[in-house]
Amino acid sequence: MQRSGPPPTTANAPFFSSSFFSSSSSKSRPGTSSGEPPEKSQSQPPPQPSPFFPPPLQPQSSGPNVLIKDRKNSFGRKTSFSSPNKSSSLSSSSSKRRANSSSSGGGGNVVVTDRNVPPALPDFALAAAAKITRDADNIQSPASADSFSRMLSRTQTGSTSLAPSDRLQPPPTSATHPNMWQSSESVVLHMQMQEIANKRISTLDYLRKAHEGRVYWFNTILFDKPDLARMPSFESRKLARRATNYLLLGLSLPTIVDLYANTPIEFLRSLNNLLQEFESFQQLHSEGGTSTSSLSRARLPSMFRRQGGKSRRSTSGANDIGYPLDSDSANGGSYGGIGGSSSASASVMSFASSDNDLLPGEVYTHLLTPSLPFEPDFYETFATLCEVLIDVYTKVLSLVPTPRETTAPVAELFAKADAKVRKIIVQGVVKEFEDSSRSHIKTEVANIGKVLDRQHTDNMSGLFGAASSASSSNTVGDLKQDVALNNPPEDSISDLAFSPAQNQTSDFLAVSSWDKKVRIYEIAPNGQSEGRHAYEHDGPVLGCDWSKDGTKVLSGGADKAVKLCDLGSQQTIKIGEHDQPVKSVRFFESSGTPMAVSGSWDKTVKYWDMRSPTPAASLACQERVYTIDVRNDLLVIGTADRYINVVDLKNPTKFYKTLQSPLKWQTRVVSCFADAAGFAIGSIEGRCAIQYVEDKDATSNFSFKCHRDPPANNVTNVYAVNDISFHPVHGTFSTAGSDGTFHFWDKDAKHRLKGYPQVGGSITATTFNKTGSIFAYGISYDWAKGFQHNTQAYPTKVMLHPVQADECKPRPTMKKR
Question: How many domains does the chain have?
Answer without folding.
Answer: 3
